[in-house]
Design brief:
heterodimer; A: mainly alpha; MetI-like fold; B: 10 strands; about 25% strand; binds adenosine-5'-triphosphate; binds magnesium ion
């Protein structure tokens, strides 16, 4: 994952220079009056707004982050809970695969947004509707990634296990699942990002809490500062979750130094 | 002790491919006694792996049958432990995990599994690497783990599909020595496929030369080199004489199999 051509400290230094330069330039452009802060506030103003939203009596930022993250993770885990076992079975059983593939091909291209009308009709705008949106946005992808990962497991390993006396269930448990795990995890990393898109969209359309809701209301009040705070919070939360995810990956796939190739 | 372990009766295997039917093995008959080491040599593509896969129960013959201790093999047969050319170790298990896998499947206690695994790990000189993953080992070490894994499962028959082909000459010799020792101590029945006549002569009691595809038995040699053998058996006159005999025949078969196209690239 890390760039091979540069050492770590250089990477950090150059990265910092790029970031500081970008922020400085932005600040400068706004301060010098090239851009109206009403349309794009300076970074210093964004930070100020963030402070207001993060600390103090009516701090809503943490609650929004928490609410959105819980929705994302709930829907995400639900889709894993259903999608991974189904994907494993589809991966090892060509008959089931053939039967389910057309259905999945129809569901998978649907953007999460397109599920919003139906889900609102069925479930209103409470939490379950958010979970459902994330689930519908993620499930088919989890399924497809898991199926592909399962089919990518070296068939000689399955033969080797059968030769050592493994039953079909034992092959699934001890060979197919661990063999597919690295690629399943790489897939799930992509799906986690999809889950965020789902939640933010759902919150913008119908919700009274969460980061998407916060950004949308800020827009109604023309509070560009708050819009940017919301967007920044999404970035940082996704980044944090991604780091956590890599940790989990290293824990679950110890035989691959540095995690899976993604 | 001429009690029959494996008996192949007029076995044929025809694959259905996109371009039509392809006979890989045809009318192959062979009998292997308990405790006997039989090496099979033959040109590339003559159906050796196919034959072994049928004995392991991975493939069903399209004609004829293969008996193990008098009973037809109809499913994957754990009594015939396979050693694959590409090792086929489980990358997510440690050396110990790989070796203990067979016993674990049979529901033995963790302690018992580890004891069995440790026995074989030490037997092939891999102590100190119990916690290593296969990806951290050299090719020779990986093949030793594969050997251990098969042996720890206590199979009646050891099936080896060119297990040492990917190893360098030195490591290969060490592995041959190792296998000789283990086979001579345990009196296991072994069916061993190789491209190397030397390897076949070092290891075998009997040597089967297969014809070009579709594979049949072309010739069988009784290898009467004295046992117990060491690697230096290769330097004896008797060895060289046998080698010459087999060499001439194989040469003929290989040349017959490979009508080389004119190289146009
Ligand atoms: N699953 C399969 N489907 C179709 N054809 C196959 C299949 N397996 C093997 N064959 C064909 O059968 C023939 C014999 O293959 P096999 O692998 O048994 O040869 P081999 O003697 O082991 O060769 P090598 O020494 O190169 O390993 C080959 O022509 C091969 O293309
Ligand atoms: Mg072969």
């Amino acid at each position: 994952m890390r760039d091979k051509e540069l050492e770590l400290w250089r990477l950090i230094v150059f990265g910092a220079i790029g970031l500081v330069g970008f922020i400085g330039l932005w600040e400068l452009v706004v301060r010098l009056g090239f851009i109206d802060p009403f349309f794009l506030p300076a970074p210093s103003q964004v930070v100020q707004r963030m402070q207001q939203l993060a600390v103090g009596p009516d701090a809503v930022l943490w609650r929004d982050i928490r609410v959105s993250a819980i929705r994302v993770l709930t829907g995400f885990f639900l889709s894993i809970l259903v999608g991974v076992p189904c994907g494993l079975i589809m991966g090892v059983n060509p008959v089931i695969r053939a039967a389910l593939n057309p259905i999945i091909s129809i569901i998978r291209p649907l953007p999460a947004l397109s599920w919003i009308p139906l889900s609102m009709l069925w479930l209103g705008i409470d939490e379950q509707q958010k979970y459902a949106i994330v689930f519908m946005g993620c499930f088919a992808s989890v399924l497809v990634y898991t199926t592909d990962a399962t089919m990518g497991v070296d068939p000689t390993l399955t033969l080797a296990a059968r030769n050592l006396g493994a039953t079909r269930m034992q092959v699934l448990r001890y060979v197919v699942l661990p063999g597919a795990l690295p690629n399943i995890l790489s897939g799930l990393k992509v799906v986690l990002a999809i889950a965020w898109t789902c939640v933010i969209s759902a919150e913008m359309v119908g919700a009274n809490s969460g980061l998407g809701f916060r950004i949308w209301t800020a827009k109604e009040w023309s509070d560009t500062g708050q819009v940017l705070v919301g967007m920044l919070s999404i970035s940082l939360t996704v980044l944090l979750l991604d780091i956590l995810f890599r940790g989990v990956e290293r824990l679950l796939v110890p035989w691959r130094k540095g995690g899976s190739a993604a | 002790m001429s009690d029959v372990m494996i008996r192949a009766e007029n076995v044929s295997m025809t694959f259905r491919t996109r371009t039509g039917e392809l006979g890989a093995v045809e009318d192959f008959s062979l009998q292997v006694d308990r405790g006997e080491v039989v090496c099979i040599v033959g040109a590339s593509g003559c159906g050796k792996s196919t034959l072994l896969n049928m004995v392991a129960g991975f493939l069903r013959p399209t004609a004829g049958r293969i008996l193990l201790e008098g009973k037809e093999i109809t499913a994957v047969e754990p009594r015939c432990g396979m050693i694959f050319q590409n090792y086929a170790l489980f990358p997510w298990m440690t050396v110990r995990g790989n070796v203990a896998f067979g016993p674990r499947l049979r529901g033995l206690s963790k302690k018992e599994c580890n004891r069995k695994a440790q026995h074989w790990i030490e037997r092939v000189g891999l102590q100190g690497f119990e916690q290593a993953y296969p990806g951290e080992l050299s090719g020779g070490m990986q093949q030793r783990v594969a050997l251990c894994r098969a042996l720890a499962n206590e199979p009646e028959v050891l099936l080896c599909d060119e297990p040492f082909a990917a190893l360098d000459a030195m490591t290969r010799q060490i592995m041959q020595q190792e296998l000789l020792r283990i086979v001579q101590d345990s009196a296991k029945t072994v069916l061993f496929i190789t491209h190397s006549i030397d390897e076949a002569l070092i290891l075998s009691d009997r040597l089967v030369v297969m014809s070009a595809r579709p594979g049949r038995v072309k010739a069988v040699y009784n290898n009467d080199l004295p046992r117990p053998r060491k690697l230096d058996v290769q330097l004896t006159d008797r060895f060289l004489k046998l080698k010459r005999q087999v060499w001439d025949l194989v040469q003929e078969e290989v040349m017959g199999a490979m009508v080389l196209p004119v190289n146009t690239t």
